[in-house]
Amino acid sequence: MKLGFVPGPLVIAGMLCGAGAASAQAYPVKPIRMVVTGVGSGGDFAARVIAQGVSPSLGQQIIVDNRGSGNIPALVVSRAAPDGYTLCLSAAPLWITPFLRKTPYDPVKDFAPVTLVITSPNILVVHPSLPVKSVKELIAFIKARPGQLNYATSGIGGSGFLAAELFKSMSGTNMVRVNYKGGGLALTELITGQVQMMFANAGAVAPHMKTGRLRALAVTGLKPSALLPELPTVAAALPGYELVSVQGIFGPAGTPRTVIDRLNRELVPFLQKPETKQIFLKAGVETIGSTPEELAARVKSEMDRLGKVIKAAGIKVEN
Fold first, then answer.
1. Residue 71: predicted pLDDT
2. pLDDT exceeds cutoff 60 at 14
3. Would you call 266 helix, strand, or coil by DSSP?
4. DSSP state of 33
5. What domains lie within the chain, and their CATH numbers?
6. Where in 100-229 does DSSP place strands (E)?
7. Of the candidates 115, 133, 123, which has an alpha carbon nearest to the alpha carbon of residue 159?
8. Using alpha carbons only, what angle is made at residue 93 by residues 53 and 152, rounded to the nearest 5 degrees?
9. Bridge partners, 251 (sequence order)
10. In this predicted model, what pLDDT tens digit does every residue of 184-216 receive, in sequence order?
């Protein structure tokens, strides 16, 4: 009986490599899920704009999966199959919360960065009854009244909270934190004078700045923002101060580099289109687009810098 051809080890290896390459080239072959926080959040808005803009070029639909608040999206993605079909769009709480409480994921080991998506400075705003018109005046005012001024935050671990804690640390001031369940309530309390200051989202406070219900002192980026170019930076009074909200897209650790690269090739050009930038600017944020390595470096830098601030302040939250 004549035996059929039996491939040798090298042939088998070549066949497997070819199959793997073909599989990677075919990605995506089904819809991609992007897990974000609740409907109406900044992450939800960004994810939906991205889904609408990038799905056609990917050839598959990106489905936005809202999973409440906090770190639920990060947890979902950290446990997902590393095949590129489950992603999350996350901000600083993903990599800062582990400094505040125990989390069921590691912010570095359990995720594969894809790209930075958006950045937004916070705006340091005060109630107009406060007799200060600059950051230097505010610092002097607080130092003359240690522990007497309240500042609002909309969640421990968020960018407004981190901006305030960094400000306290670098300026050597003593203020009382008043934490609210949401940014809207915190802003209302500031407008009515229940608290005196807040580091708030630019898009949220801009209308109140125009009406005079709030006074803006500075932006928290190292450079003036395109959103509010007339405002100085906090860094002008506190050299080296910087705290901007950033959001990035991540997959589970172990996602093939070919898949990460394909996603990056579709996402970054879309984020850098003038029309995309304009959509996000109207919402109070700026688009970026980056390499996976740049996102990884940004996460590491923020963990190193802000982790020290949180530890020094002894801030912890209950699980």
1. 79
2. no
3. helix
4. E
5. 30-120+244-313 (3.40.190.150), 121-236 (3.40.190.10)
6. 111-126, 150-153, 176-179, 197-201, 215-219
7. 123
8. 105
9. 112
10. 899 999 999 999 999 998 878 888 998 999 999
